[in-house]
Write a structure and sequence with these properties.
The protein has 27 helices and 30 strands. By secondary structure, it is an alpha+beta fold.
């Protein structure tokens, strides 16, 4: 069955903009004529694939843009490049997804599936598009539906079921899977090309998980050994899944309908079919898992940056006052922070100790980052390559990980039907093809539909079972600690329990040459990591004059494979039958996630992750000495295992009135690694809307979708901070005409709802465009003018290294990059909010250590705001939105727009900005087993 294929990786992975001259239209037509013959689809089977075990009553829906089809043959890629032609099901979910932004105001329950897919189990016979027996097997059938082309895999044996899952995954995402197994192994440039962005991507992930082949295999062996029968079943499932992937590779290779990117990157010859597509092996799955874990499920790692800003604060104010100022900006447990568990229950974790022990703060000016890349040749030595390396290092070593995704869950006590309602999903960015793929798997011990990361889809990872649904958001609690290992003998030996011990050198050598897809000149380099028992070396410094290496120890290091057991349980209808068994399942997942659950009677929440039990007195915010007294309790360096906090200590709840999560603080006294959990957080956009719905009662799927969609268009700064700024500005009559005009526009925008939304669908022009431009220009100006005079430039800069000032939709400096949808996660909105309220004399819980705006003077603060507002108002659209590889300067809508970043040869158009999950479910179950 010929299907389709993609190419490079992530939003920094190089997108080939144009192919060389020989691929002009005429040549394209000739090539296509010779390549169309393998495309014949098998006739659709008429068998009814509906399921009798679906308890959702037609009220489960989902969406995952751009489309299920993520493979494209060479002919399909050429057609797309030349004429914009789309392979079937490559983007048929993009339009409905995009249209919600302008269509949600008139939404009804009956219209939900205009914007979502029907996520009922099975496929009615009149909706079957195709049916196949992969590799001729009699124990599994893959049925695809007409609307979205989603594979519905039904097996009569467990092996056959998983074989079918692997086959379907390769049909839909083979090239993407191949890309990401190479990313996880640090081999992307050798595989897909040496573009600077590819260099940066492989460096980012390999720095986080510099594994050898033996390390990858050991993870599998240990996970199987520790988990008894479930471990053995996971291994059998993985092997069957791999067999399915490899069967498709062989079939597509011999049938010549493999992904066309293999030709464009030089791995296959389009004429002779020479070349090979390497089979997948079980260690590839661990490499893929390490990428997913690093992207979405590992909190912490910013301890050195924290130390640098603390030292800057203490240098300016003295130790006592400087520490107080630092803590006020850190907001470890801000009393005004929005909480997921909001019933007042406390879950202490990573709190500030009364008497910190073992801190190893660097001597001023001594910190240097450990270089990763060595022996650069050719294009690897250019400025673009070195810039990409610097960006990758900053991203990897920051505590501001990619934390995205949101959830809105309401208990049946407050819904119109009496059944819980949930709208939830992960924000995984926007790619073509998407990192996730939809599927349904039905077989012995497995019954689920939903999304899985390509190449890891032996189980559904986010989705629904027969009578329950689940989803996750990134939580970001700190499971990464930084240790100062004292050096001895030379720079590559360190003291371990008093013995001078050699570091382990791990290297990955990569080289590349130009291809049709990536014309980057030939080059090469070696990535080198020095590993200690306390993790890889990330920095070097001196502490009290002693030479040290700062290492990062992650509790999930060498344990990416462990989470497979939790996902296996989530797919098992015999295991998950209640909120309690759901919580038990996700306790087996060591990634740092917030998990949500809904069935027809109950809702539930659980925060997962292997939270290490730290030694008494250790402050998780800062580096500590690599000495036995400060190690994790019962830590074994050979296996990187330790004591972890018990399940009851993780934020958890059953049947709370409602839950919201947008990567905000989980619960009282539970400290997360990233900064910014204060009085204003994007979680407030959900909290305010859902709280109002619950207070009124009668919540429906429609009203909850509307709340999500409305929050997805809101400008957090405008909704929650701008009214207070305008209150200061309007504390006296504004006499300057420029400032007065700007105030009038901003006030009108706030009154209209402070949304970034088109005048009408497809207009590509914002309503209140001028006000939006003014705020986008004003925010960074006002923050700097408000805080830098009081903090001083050194401390202000240090704090901006801990937490960026802004993350508007058009910002390219946020952790997700530009055109990525996700916005307003990291920024100084809470600092501005608290400081302005303090200057106004309003009550503030957890106030700033000092008043900064105008030194605390209302009139001086007003002068600062008006002067920066005038400057912002005078900036043109071209200055505020300078343009990039997607947009011309001054195009405000385009600057915000969401781009499906190409990871392969198929391109899609941009869509209007929304701040919402990429994969999203809307669920309301009517009954239970």
């Amino acid at each position: 069955m010929p299907r389709r294929t993609p190419h490079n990786a992530l939003d920094r992975l190089r997108t080939p903009r144009r192919f060389p001259g020989f691929l002009k239209t005429a040549s394209v037509c000739v090539l296509i004529a010779g390549l169309l013959s393998p495309f014949s689809q098998a006739a659709a089977g008429a068998a009814d694939a509906t399921a009798g075990n679906d308890y959702c009553g037609g009220q489960c829906s989902d969406i995952l843009p751009p489309g299920e089809n993520g493979n494209a043959t060479l002919a399909q890629i050429l057609l797309n490049q030349a004429f914009g032609t789309q392979p079937s099901h490559a983007e048929d979910q993009l339009g409905p997804y995009a249209n919600l932004a302008t269509g949600y105001s008139g939404l009804t329950d009956a219209a939900i599936n205009t914007f979502f897919n029907d996520a009922s189990l099975g496929v009615p016979s009149d909706q079957v598009a195709s049916s196949e027996k992969p590799a001729g097997r009699s124990d599994v059938t893959i049925v695809r539906d007409k609307k979205a082309g989603v594979p519905h895999i039904t097996g009569t044996t467990r092996y056959g079921t998983e074989f079918g899952a692997g086959y379907a995954a390769a049909e839909d995402r083979l090239w993407l899977m191949d890309v990401f197994r190479h990313v996880g192994r640090g081999q992307l440039t050798s595989f897909a090309g040496g573009a600077a962005a590819n260099q940066g991507l492989e460096q980012e992930f390999w720095r986080n998980a510099p594994y050898t082949e033996a390390d990858l295999q050991a993870q599998i062996d240990n996970a199987v050994a520790r988990n008894g029968a479930r471990g053995q079943q996971a291994l059998a499932d993985a092997n069957a899944y791999l067999a399915g992937i490899n069967a498709y590779i062989d079939a597509s290779d011999s049938g010549r309908y493999f992904p066309g990117e293999y030709v464009l990157t030089g791995h296959k010859d389009s004429i002779t079919n020479a070349g090979t597509i390497d089979h997948f092996k079980i260690t590839d799955l661990v490499a893929l898992g390490s990428v997913v874990g690093a992207l979405f499920g590992s909190g912490g790692g910013g301890e050195v940056n924290n130390a640098l800003s603390l030292l800057a604060a203490q240098s300016k104010y003295g130790v006592e006052e400087g520490t107080k100022v630092w803590e006020s900006f850190r907001e470890r447990n801000d009393p005004e922070a929005v909480l997921t568990v909001h019933n007042g229950e406390s879950f202490p974790y990573a709190s500030r100790p009364d008497d910190p022990k073992g801190e190893a703060l660097p001597d001023p000016g001594s910190v240097t980052q450990e270089p990763l890349v060595h022996d650069r040749t050719g294009s690897a030595a250019g400025s673009a390559a070195t810039t990409a390396s610097a960006t990758a290092a900053r991203t990897t070593l920051s505590s501001a990980k990619r934390g995205m995704s949101n959830a809105l869950v309401v208990s049946g006590k407050y819904t119109a039907s009496g059944h819980p309602v949930a709208v939830f999903g992960p924000q995984t960015g926007y790619f073509a093809p998407q990192l996730l793929m939809l599927q349904e798997i039905q077989g012995p011990g497995i019954s689920a539909r939903g999304a899985s990361f390509a190449g890891l889809s032996m189980y559904v990872e986010l989705g629904r079972g027969q009578d329950y649904s689940w989803s996750a958001t990134t939580s970001g609690q700190d499971i990464i600690d930084t240790y100062a290992v004292e050096l001895c003998q030379d720079d590559y030996h360190y003291l371990y329990h008093g013995t001078c011990t050699a570091m382990d050198k791990v290297e990955q050598k990569n080289s590349w040459s130009p291809t049709v897809a990536d014309g980057t000149a030939a080059g090469s380099y070696t990535m080198r990591v020095w590993r200690t028992k306390y993790g890889p070396v990330e920095y070097r410094a001196t502490v009290g004059g002693k030479k040290v290496a700062y290492t990062t120890l992650r509790s999930s290091f060498l344990h990416e494979a462990d989470s497979i057991i939790g996902f296996q349980m989530l797919n098992d209808p015999g295991y998950v039958r209640s909120p309690q068994t759901f919580q038990s399942a996700v306790q087996h997942i060591n990634y740092t996630f917030n998990w949500f659950y809904a069935d027809s009677q109950h809702t539930a929440y659980y925060n997962s992750g292997d939270n290490p039990v730290r030694a008494s007195g250790v402050d998780a915010e800062f580096p500590v000495w690599a000495q036995a007294a400060y190690e994790w309790r019962n830590w074994d360096p050979a296996t990187n295992t330790a004591d972890y906090t018990p399940a009851s200590a993780h934020p958890n709840s059953i049947d709370q009135d409602y839950y919201v999560s947008w990567n905000n603080k989980q619960a009282k006294d539970y400290t997360t690694a990233p900064w910014g959990d204060g009085s204003v957080h994007r979680g407030n956009l959900l909290e305010d809307r859902v709280k109002k719905l619950v207070a009124a009662g009668g919540v429906t799927r429609t009203s909850l979708v509307k709340a999500m969609a409305d929050a997805a268009l809101a400008d957090l700064r405008a909704e929650d901070v701008l009214p207070k700024l305008l209150k200061v500005v309007n504390s006296s009559t504004v006499t300057d005409s420029t400032a007065a005009a700007a105030v009038s526009k901003l006030q009108a925008w706030v009154s209209a709802g402070a949304r970034r939304t088109e005048i009408s669908a497809g207009s590509k022009t914002y309503a209140d465009a001028d006000a939006i431009r003014i705020l986008d220009a004003w925010w960074p100006l006002l923050v700097k003018a408000e805080f830098e005079p009081g903090l001083g430039s050194d401390l202000y800069t240090a704090f901006t290294d801990n937490l960026p000032v802004d993350e508007s939709p058009s910002a390219a400096h946020g952790p997700t990059g530009s055109h990525a949808g996700s916005s307003f996660q990291y920024g100084w909105w809470s600092y501005v909010d608290k400081d302005i309220r303090a200057v106004l004399g309003e009550p503030v819980q957890g106030p700033p250590a000092q008043k900064y705006c105008g030194g605390g003077s209302l009139s001086a603060c007003r002068d600062i705001l008006i002067s920066t507002l005038k400057e912002a108002a005078g900036r043109t659209a071209a200055q505020v939105y300078p343009g990039d590889d997607q947009c011309s300067a001054g195009d405000q809508w385009c600057a915000d727009s969401i781009v499906q970043r190409t990871l392969g040869g198929i391109k899609h158009g941009s869509i209007s900005w929304q701040n919402r999950p990429t994969f999203q479910q809307v669920v309301e179950y009517t009954s239970h087993r």
